Amino acid sequence: MNHFPGAFMLKTWLTCIILMCFLVGCTNQRVEKHDYTGWKAYAGTKDAMRYSANDQITKQNVSQLKAAWVYSSGDKDSLNRSQNQCNPIVINGVLYGTSPRMKLLALEADTGKEIWVFDPASEDESLIDEPLRYYKVNRGVAYWRSDDGTSERIFYNVGHKIYAIDASSGKPVRTFGEHGSIDLTQGLDRDFGAAQPFIVSTSPPVVHDNLLISGSRVAETADAAPGHIRAYNVVTGEREWIFHTIPHPGEKGYETWTDPEAYKKLGGANNWAGMSLDPEKGIVYVPTGSASGDFYGGYREGSNLFANSLVALNAATGEYIWHFQTVHHDLWDRDLSANPNLVNLNRDGKKIEAVAQITKQGYIFVFDRNTGEPVFEIKERPVSQEALPGEKPWPTQPIPELPEPFARQRFEENDVTKLSDSIHKVMLERYRQIKHNEMYAPPSKAGSWIFPGFDGGGEWGGAAVDPETQILYVNSSEIPWSMVMVDAPGQTDKDGSMKSPGRSVYDTHCFACHGKDLKGNSAAFPSLVEIGNKYKPEEILQILNSGINMMPSFAHLKQEDKSNVIEFLTGQEIETSGNAEPQGADPKKLEKEPASEHSQDGILAQVKYQMTGYNRFLDDQGYPGITPPWGTLNAVNLNTGKLLWKVPLGEYPELTAMGIPATGTENYGGPVVTKGGLVFIAATKDSKIRAFDKDSGEVLWEAALPAPGYATPAVYEVEGKQFLVIACGGGKIGSISGDQYVAFALPE
Question: CATH classification of 489-606, choosing from 3.40.1170.60, 2.40.160.20, 3.40.50.2300, 1.10.760.10?
């Protein structure tokens, strides 16, 4: 009898041990719930690891990879304006992706054979012959399956709409939203009056249980719409919750805007880069962009939460959990440009469930994903306060001590290109015309070097992480851009004469990208000189209403303003009746509904300075004006924070032929790391896809593509065979356009 309590305690203890072991096993099983052998979500899995557990393709046999199939949608643009940046998904042997004309494709993943195609133009007859169908951007799709397995849907974005498409038939699900889609311009808790806000989505939503969580892309100018995060019911399309990224009164972060009515009239702070999800914890991690406008913030004093922040939200309710702001009062367009990686680290013998966020600056911020506590020290460093009149820069900016940056951080005189003595002399003179070269120097008329450039550093292709080693792989563009500010153009010319109405509209909305003289800068910001010889006035109107590639829509402008700027650009008048109205607008509403009391025209009037343009530092031959490498692939150990290796990514064949070592190129898209010991990445201007040894960075294989693969590859398996697929869309930075998906595999 006296031994019973001890026996009972022993039994209880053993039971607890067994239960703990079971729970640990279940926990491990839940962690492994992410299927790293497939590619069922954007970035592979909802934790955005961009990792494949498939190991059929190895370091030893990767040289044998051959094209297994090529699919062409047939809808690339012959003028090299179209793009395809899609990271496709694979569900039950079916590959789902998009085409340059924003069609949704279902292909046999092992053969590339077309199963069905959904064309959004079929939903809107006005789109059938619309040339601007080439100009939309989509980077992926999302998948949902009902609990009983009777319904499977693909969700994807086309402009301002999110479509729900039946996965088996390719037909819209008419019971979802309004006849098969939801409109992102609606349900933002803001009165836009008669205006048509520019709101689209380039990255796919995240599916959590029966919720569809979506971000958006908005304009970059002061009159942009807010970038609030919204969740919709996957079955009905009804909005279930909203998180205000520009907080409303009483909400956390409201006090970070000096203007108490900022939430009524200011925009941005949007998630355009996609999100990551921990389905077990029910937490969605949301990286956001800058507040509008990008380079002058005198009208938006404060640190501006939740712009430039990584925000952790309850995925079921949208409730705030924690945040970290990576740039305070952003004046440099330092958006968080990729969805973060959810990683499990071993730091000084301590296991940490972490989230790692790459940045355009080349930094990696790492946090405990439960609490938001930094894993490595982050210091608030004083920065220059030498600002334009009316501007109030934030006095400090957060700089992580570790991990080590994956991109160079300064651009000095001795970094100017040395391709030849003559080129060096010319570029050195140009370098000295820009005064400031320190990080976070406030915009000025004297000019600042933005390095890494406005497009990174790290970009939307994101980073890949090997969960076995916790090594992060990320590509980087290392090209300086210059930023020079000028007084915002007024209503009169230097001689005091009144500007034409069209010139005034141009100076307000087009000046920053296309320049005072309309000559633009590079293929991304084309010249508008003699644009009337290239486009009819009606086609230019379509461009204004729909946008082109990364140019936003200006459908919200008054019809009179559109007519005036078209006449200014072409010398021709245009009728703005009939189909000239912005897509989806109600003519009666446009005529009768009064403008909101918080008119966007008033905000634009508060912009005292404008940037002269997005100017890459390039020589007269188009090569970057900095010493190589111009593009790199990098490996960073997230456990220690140490940069393990850095290698050039891409080459200019003509320079290689001259005996110049590989320089790397500007790059768009991201990497995938595999259990087979490889990092696969395309992304380069030289139209190649490569396999790198993940331990050393050595190139083990490369293959030519029909057009640059400015996208992230997908790696998957069908019936025991491993495939690598890449979208070859091209179309950026002067590249040819493509419409192919190319899949590689080992020969039989």
Answer: 1.10.760.10
